[in-house]
Write a structure and sequence with these properties.
This protein is an all-alpha fold. The chain contains 14 helices and no strands.
Length: 338
């Protein structure tokens, strides 16, 4: 079982919170530890947001708890009424995310039977501040989240699967038969899954950039790349749909040599996929020569002297297939050249 960095950092934050609390003479580090656990989030920005929420909840819970504790400490009826009022206040202030911690602080103060409720409330707020500060510092300084790296890794996988898909669909086309739908669907599903994961990481990276956390590739660059990847996916789905409908073998034969050349060139590239499918590396690979071959194939099909012998819809399907193939490789070229 793999132990995640967030798990380890939570443990570190708890330990440091207890050490700081003991150093400062705090008898019970309970609130500091709870704050550290809650505030440790997947991103530094989320840790900061949780810290603010925790502080607001603690403040309101302490104030309301102190008022009710002064009136009648540990009274069951007032405890319920106090919680209701506290929740109403938090909702009115639109601090709903902080209701739980506000309630915990309220109960902690309300049930305190040692007296000095105001002093106790101030101490609890101080305890909480320790946990918040420790958790944010730990999350920021110890292996801070690098979601830009995760996005780039996912994009690299997408580019490899895109290259593989285009070779497979051209192979199906040249065999004069309908596509192996199951195989092509699996490739499409992989790319869709990777795109979804990339967008999830990208959203987290956007949050991190708001607090200037480490990162080599900026959110805007990766957003553009993923937008291109989604367009590529749409073009590949278009090609697959056309192939599912079937294209007349006689029409394919008119430009068989051109299509074979494109496929062969893609196969050559696949042998160097680890080099060409690494984005943001100033890649010198350019697919314009392959894109030009597709344009030649379209031109040869349109100008073929026997074109009028075939059904118009078959010719149109072939042209639409080539258009989507051209757009796929054009945008794919932009991705790997970024």
């Amino acid at each position: 079982m793999k132990i995640g960095l967030r798990t380890i950092k939570t443990g570190i934050a708890v330990t440091l919170s207890m050490i700081v609390a003991q150093f400062m003479g705090i008898e019970s580090p309970f609130f500091a530890v709870v704050a550290a656990i809650i505030v440790m989030q997947p991103t530094v920005s989320d840790s900061w947001i949780k810290g603010v929420e925790r502080t607001l909840g603690t403040l309101v819970g302490a104030v309301v708890g102190t008022i009710f504790a002064v009136l009648a400490p540990s009274n069951p009826l007032l405890a319920g009424i106090g919680i209701i009022i506290l929740i109403i206040i938090m909702n009115k202030l639109k601090w709903g995310e902080s209701i739980t911690i506000a309630g915990v602080v309220f109960i902690g103060i309300f049930l305190n039977d040692e007296g000095g409720h105001i002093t106790y409330a101030i101490h609890r707020m101080f305890d909480t501040a320790i946990g918040i500060i420790v958790a944010v510092i730990v999350n920021y300084t110890i292996y801070p989240p690098t979601y830009d790296v995760k996005v780039v890794d996912e994009i690299n996988i997408i580019t490899k699967n895109t290259l593989k898909y285009n070779i497979e669909i051209l192979d199906s086309l040249l065999q004069y038969k309908k596509a192996n739908i199951e195989t092509l669907d699996m490739q499409i599903q992989k790319i869709e899954t990777e795109l979804a994961q990339s967008e999830k990481f990208l959203e987290m990276q956007k949050k991190e950039e708001a607090v200037n956390v480490y990162g080599g590739v900026r959110h805007k660059e990766m957003f553009i790349t993923l937008s291109l990847a989604k367009e590529v996916l749409q073009h590949m789905q278009n090609m697959q749909y056309i192939l599912e409908q079937g294209i007349g073998s006689e029409v394919i034969k008119l430009i068989e040599e051109d299509i074979s050349k494109v496929k062969d060139n893609l196969n050559t590239l696949k042998k160097k996929e680890n080099q060409i499918c690494e984005v943001y590396r100033n890649n010198s690979i350019n697919l314009n020569y392959i894109i030009q071959d597709i344009k030649i194939a379209k031109k040869n099909l349109k100008n073929n002297e026997n074109i009028n012998k075939f059904q118009t819809d078959e010719v149109v399907k072939m042209l639409v297939f080539l258009y989507n193939l051209e757009e796929t490789l054009l945008k794919f070229n932009m991705i790997i050249s970024s």
